[in-house]
Structure formats: structure tokens, C-alpha cells
């Protein structure tokens, strides 16, 4: 075949492939995701849920940003998404306040904002389309009711709390939920509460300080599993014991796999679930919005509670996170 014709045909073939790629790229729904950070096992599972859902095969282009638990980084990421004119912005806000300005910028740019995991406290809730996450107050109430069942009318139950990042919805809600219940049980005494920033290292540090200040701690409430892992290390280092047979009862939130391992090892008494698998739920919302459908403003994920009375090995075998 004449060389010129071959050359022309191969250019045409490349051009058509590129055209297909360009149109394929243009058909993707671009999602900018401003993630809190990578502070806990829960967060890792939450990130993985988004990355495994928002793939090109599923019709998405995901632009992911890890804010390292800093609000200013999340605000920068959102502005970056606006500049890139993404189709949707998803945010897991590190704290509840300080978002009005950047949300207004997204609204002015005509880009819907979906909140995942934690909530934003804004006067005008039209600034975000909807929120998907855990019912943190209910988680706290479930935890406190479990403690009331366990300790009953024991004379005096001394409690310390290692809180999450102060101002985060999970911290606000869990603390509120525990208080809602324990305020009606005078035998429970909250000795102290301090933030462990949802990390294992800080959780250990806070528990070390509590153990130096108080020699009669009966319960430590950790506002996530990773703080509990740190608290357990601190309790053991102080020569005390924890778990169902120990000196100190340890309870926590999230219910990641490592929490099941800690319960099986006899270190952790109970964990109250906060489902991190938000990716598919957010994708479902985006598909509805693409189809011009209404979506519910507030969407809770399913959550349970686990303790050492259960068949933890069997449950762990089925856990997705
Ligand atoms: C809860 C989430 C919290 C988890 C922590 O929805 O915001 O943040 O409980 C994580 O593990 O750091």
C-alpha cells in the first residue's frame, strides 16, 4: 500500500483514539474530595471506600486531598476544586465551624457540596446539598447505656474521657450522648476529659496523664478506637490491667478490625460502631443529582455495638473494615 496512505491512515487512527479518550475523559464525573487526614484506622477505611468507589471504570475522576487534620488545608483544597471547576465537591469537615465563606464561593461557582462523615455548622444549610454520616449522639448514648447496664448501681463509678478532635462532630456528638445518659446516674462521676485528637499517640499521652492524676479510675471512654489502643498501652505501662477482667474498663467508638482484635485479646471491653463506608452512599447521591432527583438532607449510616459477650472471631471474619 502507498506509504502516504499508510501514514494518513495511522494518523487518523491515533486521532480517533485520542478523540475517544478526550470524549471518555469529558464523560467522567469529576469529584473533588477534601478528606480530614489519615489519623485513624477509621479514616483509612473511609478514604479507601471513596477511592474504590470513585474510579474511572465507575465513570468518575476523583481528585483527592488529605488535609492532615488542618481546616486551612481543607479550605485551600475546596478553592482548588472550584478553580478546576469539578462537578461535585465532597468534604469531611475536620471541625464544624468556619466554612461559610468557602461554601458561598462553591455555591457562586454552581458546584454542589456534599458533606460526608462530619457536619458543618452553618446558618444557611442551602450552602451544602446533603450530609451522610454516623449518628454521633446516638453512639454516645448507646455507649453510656452499656456502661449503666454493666455497672448498675455500683456505689461510685469514676470515669475519664479521652475526647476526639475538639469541635469535630464526632467529638461533640459522642460527648453529648454520653452526658445525656450519665447525667441521670449520680453514681457515675466524670473525673476528667481531654482531647486525644483521635490518634493513638495522643490517646496514650492523655491516659498517662490521667493515671498520674487519679488512682481510682474505673472507666476510660475513648472517642475512637485508636485512642483506646493508646490508653491500653498506658494502662499496662502503669502496671494496671484493663478489659473485662481488668482494673479499668475501656470502651471506644468506630469498631475497626483492630478493636475486635483488642476485645479478643481481653484489653478492650466494647466498641460502638461508626460506619466509614460512605463512598457508595455518596456515589448514590451523585447519581440521583445527575438524574435531577431530590436527595434527603441528612442521611445516617447503619451502626451497631460490639462487646466481649459476642462471638467476636465470627464477626471479625466478616468485617469489611
Ligand atoms: C467519625 C469520624 C471520626 C472517627 C475517628 O465519623 O469523624 O474521625 O471516629 C476519625 O476515628 O478520626
Describe the protein.
There is one protein chain. The chain is α/β, with parallel strands linked by helices and about 325 residues long. About 45% of the residues lie in helices and about 20% in strands. The protein has helices at about 5-25, 40-55, 70-85, 100-110, 135-150, 170-180, 200-215, 225-235, 255-265, 280-290, 310-320, and strands at about 30-35, 60-65, 90, 115, 130-135, 155-165, 190-195, 220, 250-255, 270-275, 300, 305. The strands form 2 sheets. A 6-stranded parallel sheet has the order 2-1-3-4-5-11, with helices on both faces. The chain has a 6-stranded mixed sheet with strand order 7-6-8-9-10-12, sandwiched between helices. β8, α8 and β9 form a beta-alpha-beta unit. α5 runs parallel beside α6, α7 crosses α8 and α9 packs antiparallel against α11 (about 310-320). The structure holds beta-D-galactofuranose (GZL). The site of beta-D-galactofuranose (GZL) has 15 residues, from α2 and β9. Beta-D-galactofuranose binds near residues 42, 118, 170, 198 and 274.
Question: SSE layout and pairings?
Answer:
Blueprint: H1 3-27, E1 29-35, H2 41-53, E2 60-66, H3 71-83, E3 88-91, H4 100-108, E4 113-116, E5 130-133, H5 136-151, E6 157-163, H6 169-182, E7 188-195, H7 200-213, E8 219-222, H8 225-237, E9 249-254, H9 257-264, E10 270-273, H10 279-290, E11 298-300, E12 305-307, H11 312-318
Parallel strand pairs: 1-2, 1-3, 3-4, 4-5, 5-11, 6-7, 6-8, 8-9, 9-10
Antiparallel strand pairs: 10-12
Helix pairs in contact: 5-6, 7-8, 9-11
The chain binds beta-D-galactofuranose.
Residues 39-40, 42-43, 117-118, 133-134, 168, 170, 198, 224, 253-254, 274 line the site of beta-D-galactofuranose (GZL).
